[in-house]
Structure formats: C-alpha cells, structure tokens
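> agent: user asked for a holo structure of the chain below bound to zinc ion. Plan: (1) validate sequence alphabet, (2) canonicalize SMILES, (3) run complex prediction with ligand conditioning, (4) return tokens. Step 1... ok. Step 2... ok. Step 3 dispatched.
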Amino acid sequence: MKGKILFLGTGASTGIPVIGCNCKVCRSKNKKNKRLRPSCLIKIKNKNLLIDVTPDFRSQALKYNIDHIDGVIITHMHYDHIGGIDDLRVFSLKDNKKILTLLEKATFEELKKRFDYLFKKKEKKTTLSAEFIFKKIEKEREKNIFSGIEIESILYFQKKTRVLGYKIGDLAYISDIKEYKKNIFHFLKDVNILILSALREDYSPVHFNLKEAITFAKKTKAKKIYFTHIAHEIDHNKISKKLPHNIFLAYDGQILEFNYEK
Ligand SMILES: [Zn+2]
Ligand SMILES: [Zn+2]
C-alpha cells in the first residue's frame, strides 16, 4: 500500500520570510523560498495524520483544504511545533470527537502548563475549546498502533529538550535533532525516505547544519533524503545545486509517496 506525505511547512521556527527581514531569501520571488513553520500531513488508508501543529496551522489547513484530522503526532514542545494546537478545535467541534494525539511524556507535561484550559473538565455547551485523547510515549523506542496505523517512535535530544522522531512504513520524520544515540541508525535501517531537519550552513547549537545533516543522512540507507526546518540563510536553488544527488531541500506543498505494508 502507498501512503502520501504533504509538506505543510518546511521553514525554521520564524518561517520565511522572517518578520522585518530584508535579506535576499526573504525578498525572493521563488515560491520554494516561502516557508511556513515545519509540519506535514500524512495520508494513508483515508486517514489524515498531522505531524506537529504549527502557529501557521490555520493558514496551512486552508491552503491545502484539510477538512478532517484523524490523529496528531507531536515531535516536541517548542512553539513552532505546537503553537497552533488551539486551532484544532474546529475539528473536534465539527466532527464532535476528541482528537487522538501521540506525544512524548515531557511534551504532555509541558502542554498542560502552556494550554492548561485544554485539560480542564469541560462544561457542556459553554466551552468551545478542542478536546483531546492524549497517548503518551514513555519509552525511548516504541511501536504504537495509532488511528489504525503502525507508528514507531524514537527519542533524541535538542539540547535538553526531548524530541521524538517517527517512522511509518518506509518513511521517517526526524526533525529538530542535535544529540542522539547510535541506535537511531538501527531504527532507520529499513527507511527509504528520510525527512531530516537541516537549519543552515553555519553552526547551530540546537540544530544540525547542512554538513551535519548530510553526514547523518549518509550513515543511513535511505534512498532519498529531504531536508526541512530550513532557515532564511538557505536559498532553495543555490543550495540545492550543492547537495549530493539523493539529498533534496523539501519545499512547502511538496508531496512524496511512501510504502506502508502493514
Ligand atoms: Zn523547531
Ligand atoms: Zn531573511
């Protein structure tokens, strides 16, 4: 069976253009240099699974006509990955159902602090906030059947922040990675399509730069690697030419196909 993944956003935490920035990339007319905050929509077995809910989620949902969500998969607690969570309420109200959400236990605890009202007991008809069923991931590596789809997760770090990477069929989404254990390459051994974060050419203390991302990608057996979470220092056309033949810069609106044989 084939699944599809649609890039709803491929930008770093500020998005591109960056507010108030006059750099060449931010002023560029190339559509591939316009990047909303990082998120993907996975379409499989008629299910829509959302990876992260960015502060741009409303625009992304309107742009790509997302009319239902069967599950949300969250990588970690940073604003650029959860900031739009409130906007999911249209789906829980419209379909009158709780939104199934997969996330790491530390992300769950942080969400409770930042969006405390989402966790309070709802009074009938007087509240219009989203309702969720949270499925917490407790182990470093876990396999879950989520909304009928098998999803594997692996824990890694961005400084002290706990981040989850996910694998569905032969596709993996590994974003906001900086420190990791070597077993991640075992986790990725049967992955053909790897989506990986790569911020810019210069060093970053919390993200892979291009060089680090290329080195990591080459240690996997992935046939095709797509970089995401891209900052305004990267011009799509200029940098694309410099990449190895099987490594690409993803762009907003891009769709990829992957295999799911479960
Ligand atoms: Zn991020
Ligand atoms: Zn800029």
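> agent: step 4 complete. Summary for user: The mean pLDDT is 96. The domain at 2-259 is CATH 3.60.15.10 (Metallo-beta-lactamase; Chain A).
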